[in-house]
Design a protein that fits this description.
Rossmann fold, disordered N terminus, about 210 residues, 6-stranded mixed sheet, two-stranded antiparallel ribbon, alpha/beta
Length: about 210
């Protein structure tokens, strides 16, 4: 009964045009996004701590606008639309299925409380369920508040995340293949710092997956 009333109050709709849609993404908007911004890539990363970087879009146009709404304008329901978009790329999803665990880049608890949700965690959890991959939010955590990355220049972004993350329950990821999920890849400093910490647990491999690349 509670679920029924929730559906009445918050009906499923396309995150781009707002029309009712049980898939959270209408065909018209899906085609529009693919024409405007189809840049999915799986690349070997030039990075000491993670092996691959996968992303589905460039951080521009409609994707950029909706990601800003998702993060900063209190629209957590957009997680459903972004998950649908990411699942539409069969090549990337097939690649991800070779991994054991998906871990979201964490937020500091104070910041997450202020926002009400961690956007990366919302998507990572849904992706894990759809791809039948374990989801773990109890391994990587952020113990130090940092400045907001999007408000910094590229030079400051590279140093801002240093020393901000830590690890627990290390035994859960030893010899496992890990997907580290974040929303945007700009300088790569955040995922590099997180991967560096995860490496302490001696995982078999780390791949970084982001919605977009700036």
């Amino acid at each position: 009964m509670q679920s029924f009333f929730m559906e009445l109050l918050f009906p499923a709709k396309c995150g781009f045009c707002g029309k009712l849609n049980t898939e959270f993404l209408c065909k018209k908007c899906e085609i529009k996004i693919q024409k405007e911004n189809s840049n999915a890539e799986i690349r070997v990363a030039d990075n000491t701590f993670f092996k691959y970087h996968l992303y589905s879009y460039l951080y521009q146009g409609t994707i950029r606008k909706k990601m800003i709404d998702f993060k900063f304008n209190d629209q957590p329901e957009l997680a459903n639309t972004f998950v649908k978009l990411l699942l539409n790329n069969k090549k990337i999803c097939g690649f991800l299925k070779n991994y054991d665990i998906i871990i979201p880049v964490p937020m500091h608890q104070k910041k997450e409380t202020q926002r009400g949700y961690n956007q990366s965690a919302l998507i990572a959890k849904k992706l894990a369920s759809k791809l039948n991959i374990d989801y773990a939010q109890d391994i990587l955590y952020k113990h130090k508040q940092t400045l907001i990355q999007s408000k910094l220049n590229r030079t400051l972004r590279k140093t801002n995340p240093k020393g901000a993350y830590n690890i627990k329950n290390m035994q859960k990821i030893k010899e496992k293949k890990i997907i580290l999920f974040d929303d945007i890849y700009t300088t790569g400093s955040t995922v590099t710092e997180c991967s560096k910490i995860l490496k302490q647990a001696k995982p078999k491999e780390i791949a970084v997956f982001t919605i977009a690349k700036d």
